[in-house]
Write a structure and sequence with these properties.
Number of helices: 14
Structural class: alpha/beta
Order of helices and strands: EHHEHHEHEHHHEHHHHHH
Radius of gyration: 23 Å
Helix content: 40-55%
Distance between the termini: 78 Å
Largest sheet: 5 strands, parallel
Shape: globular
Number of domains: 2
Strand order of the largest sheet: 2-3-1-4-5
Number of strands: 5
Length: about 350
């Protein structure tokens, strides 16, 4: 069966921190409308907490690597859905595929080849949005500290960068090579995640245009799905992650910083302009190879804007006092709510007696 007769499938693999969740929220919110326009976006299984994404596909690859026979059923079922829908355009979107077996390169290569076999019935196009390394690593650090309680989320920023470089996830040519090998270099589509290079400055319009969908103005546009920790909240959360009971109380601690999660006016950076330039310089050759192999241009990213960076060098005394005060107020609010609830229950018990 030649490519022209196969269902066209756009397999969006990330990169993380390039607006993937906003894209997925858009497709989830407009699933029926998009299907009417010829795009099929498979739904997650009932009860899956990752309803916007196809995390179940990522999980199945891990199961397959462990020898689980049920993993193939997940992909067989996906193939059946695609054939049944008979849509001109099919989309899979899950950004954590960018981190697939990141610490085991050979297993990643085997897993990607396994997926290529599972999708052999489709004309597959791998889609990847890439962010400048210095921008990406700072944003990814923020995300990991905010959401995880793990050895990685306890690392200093310097050690975090060293880990990402050791894993090779900042060498984009190396990361994309396994996908190009399995699916074909001509089937890998790379887009730089830069506002000036994205259609209308956002991933939703850019991706829709990429897959061939036009006139999306009447569809729902969900709110921004990701908020970054402010510099103050980032430092506080990093300290919290290092506590022995962090995993049990992460949600409550995050709730205390609900109003401080967004960046707001806090634009302080962890990297100076010089440090960012040093990181980007280390990957300049790799980026050029990516640009020539997959974008047919000589450069992947635009020259960085010359801007004064206000560095974050740790919490000031006043900021630390503010953190402590907010935590106290949040705890007191919780205790007051519990006290009111107990009073209500006691009152009901007295009335019934």
């Amino acid at each position: 069966m030649d490519a022209a007769s196969k269902p066209k499938l756009f397999f969006h693999i990330g990169q993380t921190k390039t607006g993937s969740t906003s894209l997925q929220a858009f497709m989830h919110a407009n699933r029926d409308a998009l299907q009417w326009r010829g795009l099929f976006y498979p739904a997650s299984p009932p009860g899956d907490r990752h309803i916007l994404k196809q995390r179940f596909l990522f999980d199945s690859v891990d199961q397959a690597a462990k020898g689980s026979g049920g993993a193939e059923f997940v992909w067989t079922r996906l193939a059946e859905q695609i054939v049944q829908r008979d849509a001109p355009i099919n989309v899979i979107s899950e950004e954590v595929f960018w981190h697939l077996f990141e610490d085991r390169p050979q297993r990643r290569r085997t897993a990607v080849q396994w997926m290529a076999k599972q999708l052999a019935h489709c004309d597959v196009h791998i889609v990847c949005y890439l962010r400048r390394q210095s921008d990406w690593v700072e944003s990814w650090f923020n995300q990991i500290v905010k959401t995880d309680v793990s050895q990685t989320s306890r690392l200093s920023f310097e050690d975090f960068i060293a880990r990402q470089e050791r894993l090779g996830v900042m060498d984009y040519q190396q990361m994309l090579a396994v996908w190009a090998e399995a699916f074909g270099a001509d089937r890998v589509i790379v887009r730089p995640w830069e506002r000036g290079k994205l259609l209308r400055g956002n991933i939703v319009d850019d991706f829709c245009d990429l897959v061939g969908l036009k006139d999306m103005d009447d569809l729902k546009r969900p709110e921004d799905q990701q908020s970054s920790l402010s510099a103050t909240a980032l430092e506080a959360m990093l300290s919290f992650n290092r506590q022995p009971t962090a995993a049990a109380h992460k949600l409550k601690f995050t709730e205390a910083f609900r109003d401080e999660l967004a960046k707001g006016s806090d634009k302080r950076f962890l990297l100076s302009a010089e440090q960012a330039a040093e990181i980007d310089a280390r990957y300049a050759e790799s980026n050029q190879q990516v640009a020539r192999s997959f974008c047919h241009t000589d450069s992947l990213f635009s020259p960085p804007a010359e801007e004064a960076r206000q560095l974050f060098s740790g919490l000031t005394v006043n900021e630390l006092l503010d953190v402590v005060t907010r935590l106290f107020v949040a705890q007191q609010r919780s205790m007051d709510a519990l006290s009111c609830r107990l009073d209500e229950l006691e009152s009901r018990a007295s009335s019934s007696a």
